[in-house]
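Recall the central idea of this unit: under ordinary conditions, the amino acid sequence of a chain determines the structure it adopts. In this exercise we apply that idea directly, starting from the sequence alone.
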Amino acid sequence: MDPCIPLPIPDDQLKDLVDKAKDYALMHGICMRQKDNFDRDALHFAPFVLFPTPFPRDEYRKSVELQTVLNELMHKVAHDYDFLKETLKHTIKVDEFTGRLWNIYETIMSEGGPTQEVEVGLFRSDYFCCCGSKGIKQVEFNTVASSFGCVTSKLVHLHKYVVAEAGHSELLKDIPDNGALEGLAGGLVEAWKIYNKPKSVILFLVEDVTYNVCDQKFHEFEIRKQCPEVFVIRKTLTELANRAQLNQDKSLWIDGHEVGVVYMRCGYHPDQYPTEKEWEARLLMEHSLAIKCPSINYHLAGTKKVQQELAKPGQVEKFLGYKAQIESVRDIFTGLYSLDHDEAGDMSYDAAIANPDRFVLKPQREGGGNNVYGEDIKPFLEKIKDSEERNAYILMDRIQPPVTTNYMVRPGQEAKLVNVISELGIFGYVIGDKNRIITNKQVGQMLRTKLSHVDEGGVAAGLGALDSVYLVDAGSCCST
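Accordingly, the structure predicted from this sequence is:
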């Protein structure tokens, strides 16, 4: 797939554009803290590619239009206790983390349901454009701590600036604006207004050490811009465990603040619950009157096992009523297979052993770096062949996206012209309860681009970079 402008470009022009892009990133907060040299008072620009990456126009529009349908689908899934129980029944026995989340959900449901029925989900649906099907295929659906919406909202302006500086202003009309920052912050503000306690705060639940700090802080600044009367506080799960409490009316309080909304930017990985105290804090939070983002049932609905179950014939139809909606959702699913100890699971196991390069092996985990690919699948599966641990994984067809070239720009390194592939993320938010949806919106997008020859593409890990969309006609994307 051809890049948006012919590459390579002359060295003197490259140096000029890279210097300008780095300065723009630093001066507009497109930044992160470095993991290998952490300094609370220092930021480096986040890794990015120099030019926006081509993506088929019609498929991009499809993904945007589909987001509210997916928001509705996942909202309804999250409120179907029987579906979640049946889908996760094997997984929760062998995946300790998912099991602990399920136990919290069961505790809440056995007590008659949540104290606060309203919940807010800031969701992101991720896609590759697949050369095989000539269309988008869903990689995953994120229901907790969906990141980079804010930083990539800034990045699109960097890319427009760089493209214009490169002498290609005619391309600007095909770089879509990105309202993820305003939209995601707006979802939290709307939830706070529904809580309707003017002195309550929005609590950001954060890691002990935050590297992706700008992405979080832009949320805070935008919330203050949209609603000057609300305050945002930042606390860790451990701080919540040590100092939070519930009043008689189940309102959640910490350090003298009543919490109206809890926005989780951590709590999605086992490492974030180092002791029982953190699990007790999560249960305390779920017991509270605060509006959760996400609620425990939204969190569970985002597991890979639920994604795999929804891909089975007849499952989406349980939750969506219109044929066009059902068909549009089913069209984005790639092959997703159970590895449970039954006939279907054994068939999936045998297929993966025979042709491991065709698949990706996925656990029930967020945060990246957890999947198993290619030739690593065979020995991994053989090790757990007769173990119940097999039930904790699903198998997914490996999607083959188009390859293009771009300059990857990273702190402390020369810009490199590399072969890359890109993953599109579409952001949306939904607010509602078990009986209704109050608000359902699509709000923006992001693009993450990684080296074409690597499996994982973590931005902080050095294999991936932030990106923006450049819209092209479908015929430009995949060679026939």
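The mean pLDDT is 94.
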